[in-house]
Write a structure and sequence with these properties.
2 copies of one chain form a homodimer. The first copy, chain A, contains 13 helices and 12 strands. By secondary structure, chain A is α/β, with parallel strands linked by helices. The longest helix of chain A has 26 residues, at 307-332.
């Protein structure tokens, strides 16, 4: 008797094995490989003492047994209140007339919020406008749901090309596809993968272009890295505060995962549109009816006792240093002289490299293969594009490796580049 | 400027606000209400000390900082190994030739596993065969995904009516709907809502009926309450062991949520079908790329140090006592003499009542309204049916209330019944 074969649903058929899983498998198969691919956070500074103390305080601080009970589907009310207060500390005018705590949802990392947002907005065949480059797990998720990503056109400096955007919107109109555009998505602070941030003016230009065409589509601002500045916050408010975005349904997403402890998997968002929020919560009710109440209670505790901000202060300095180590390793190795270019970031976890034109850095490229052989791995930049993907970009993460390993990984990377120059790919 | 209205996706439109949310709102609006509705677990016995000790041991027991880092999408390998070993302790022959740890997935409660399973199997309009009665959150989730639930016919004793099932399958064939049947789902141990368990013979009869029609559809066995027996385990193996189910793709689901701490939200499953598992993991990669690694590490710790089994031993006795208190309150109040009937369960969290024929217990019924006024609430049994729902069933949970409150809630419930007899609903 052989096992029955299954006819999978259209969604079951569409969802492909995530590229990150393939990268991890490649990494596991190769001993001693240094990964500049994983967007993991710094292991050695993970706040284990802070979390242990929070659990101890919760366990011994009165009648807190409910933290091990089911919580609310939407998230712990007191955590949502703290998250709202913290946000209003950054943007006092956000959501004027809006109760941010009531409009907050807590999710299994901000990834789940992205998934829910797209689920309730998009049918297969619909379109989401995305930044260029964009967060590759989001792009893969769109593919999995059968949703098309269309990139916002950009200028040479990486900022949005407003004229190009207007042309794109006109083309959609002409093609009868305007109504298929269901959302706009961008990572606006120290972006994954580019580490670029969007100024208020740039955000406003996008809003104006859409408004001129009466396309007040839902906008998802992904601020996952906003807290991870090195020295000072990026001076731009979000779509929740900017007048240009009034009237657009808005979802602002952030997380305590990247900024505090990835292992807790607690993300959150604020949504200005009641029905959109309600429908996301309806589906969350089916997916899990609430994120880990215990994880949320720990987040709440460290928000309330200052542990969260202490951790941020600590890791900002660590990430600055680690960025500098990797950056120096590449510069001192002579990578710029070999025709590569990149901006030195002021926050985030990534260096976003431009290879000399013509060099193919994709997963199946000879360059990628040689990197693997040399014991270093990266995220190929083509994965970070919704369409018209260039083949010559590379994302390097300085998040997880220690300083010595970053130095070594950088050297290996430059070594492969040098080797390709002297013995080009066939 | 008013906010833009959103055209939601078909799925966004279908997913309704969960009934449990409505029940909770009703409860919140009424002070002093005693809820026999919530499937919550016993608050006072939640293992806070056990969890605190686990976190302390993890934090102080060597280089464990990775528990706060991202983990694997599929779940912590060592946790999966422990879960597989524990299962093989119960069913030594399960998955002969199958590496259970490799075929295990860890999810945000077993609810997420249910969602993933249905997502990859079913398109809107497809059919899932379900037990009768069945888990109402699963049924609502099917509705939200546009999937039709068809109940397995039952005999008067609640067991599956095999002749009825064969007729049902023939009708599906005749109606050209056979190919729309994408899965079979049942709760097999101390079921939610009925507290009934399925014998091996009963499970085998279902398998035979399907096999006779060459319908080797994927089967989901939900064993969420299997560990929650009062005095001894229910003596039936699962579909993973029974020869009658060979050749069927099988997903066995369980959880550490109900049995240990609901606040940790860690469920798990074993899947015999490689492609089914792979596709569930693909979608999980889009939804969250891994459940809380920290929550999993705690589960792993209490599995390894015996804390999990200690907690089970403790709560089994507690739930037995609580069941007895509620049961006695109903019996001594004279509910049986008033025409109500129910079985006294040997595990689980529920009493499943049959009202005298004709009494409407639905959410909008006068009976339900009077209960609310009397300060007691239950889950109307019609919600627990995939189709042809009876209007005269009631699910009472003895999970969360303390003994005094259970006694009082039972009295209030009987009081309402008595009141309806002397002053019938109009």
């Amino acid at each position: 008797m052989t096992a029955s074969s299954i006819v999978f649903s259209s969604q079951g058929q569409r969802a492909k094995s995530p590229t990150i899983a393939r990268l991890m498998t490649m990494a596991l198969e190769k001993q001693g490989l240094l990964s500049l691919a994983a967007g993991f956070t710094d292991n050695r500074s993970l706040p284990l003492e802070e979390v242990e103390a929070a659990v101890k305080a919760l366990a011994e601080g009165g009648d807190n047994r409910e933290i091990l009970q089911y919580g609310m589907n939407q998230g712990r009310p007191d955590l949502r209140k703290l998250l709202a207060e913290r946000f209003l500390g950054m943007e006092p005018d956000a959501g004027l007339g809006l109760d941010l705590a009531r409009n907050c949802l807590v999710t299994n990392g901000s990834q789940q919020a992205l998934y829910l947002a797209v689920q309730v907005l998009c049918d297969a065949g619909d379109i989401v406008l995305v930044d260029r480059p964009s967060y590759f797990v989001f792009l893969e998720m769109l593919q999995g749901l059968g949703v098309r990503a269309l990139s916002l056109p950009t200028l040479a400096d990486g900022s949005v090309d407003v004229e190009g955007l207007e042309r794109l919107l006109d083309q959609l109109e002409a093609a009868g596809e305007r109504r298929r555009v269901k959302a706009l998505y961008f990572v606006s602070y120290f972006s994954n993968p580019s580490s670029r941030s969007m100024s208020e003016a740039e955000k406003e230009l996008i809003a104006h272009a859409l408004r001129r065409r009466a396309m007040l589509v839902p906008v998802i601002e992904d601020a996952a890295y906003r807290d991870l500045y090195f020295e000072k916050p990026f001076p731009a408010r979000s779509v929740l505060s900017l007048a240009a975005w009034e009237g657009f349904p808005r979802l602002y997403l952030a997380t305590m995962t990247k900024s505090f402890a990835t292992g807790l998997k607690i993300g959150y968002g604020f949504c200005t549109h009641e029905a959109w929020l309600a429908r996301m919560l309806n589906i969350k009710g089916h997916q899990d009816f609430g994120s880990s109440n215990f994880g949320q209670a720990i987040c709440q505790q460290v928000m309330a006792n200052g542990g969260f901000e202490r951790q941020l202060t600590k890791i900002r300095a660590i990430y600055l240093r680690k960025m500098q180590v990797l950056n120096r390793s590449l510069e001192q190795g002579g990578l710029r002289e070999l025709g590569w270019s990149w901006s030195v970031p002021t926050g985030g976890l990534y260096l976003w490299l431009q290879a000399p034109a013509g060099l193919d850095t994709r997963l199946d490229s000879q360059f990628c293969q040689r990197c693997l052989e040399a014991g270093v791995i990266y995220v190929p930049g083509d994965l970070c594009h919704g369409d018209h993907a260039p083949h010559d970009r590379v994302r390097l993460s300085f998040g997880v490796l220690g300083e010595d390993a970053l130095q070594e990984a950088g050297s290996r990377f430059v070594g492969v580049v040098r080797g390709m120059v002297s013995a080009p790919a066939n």
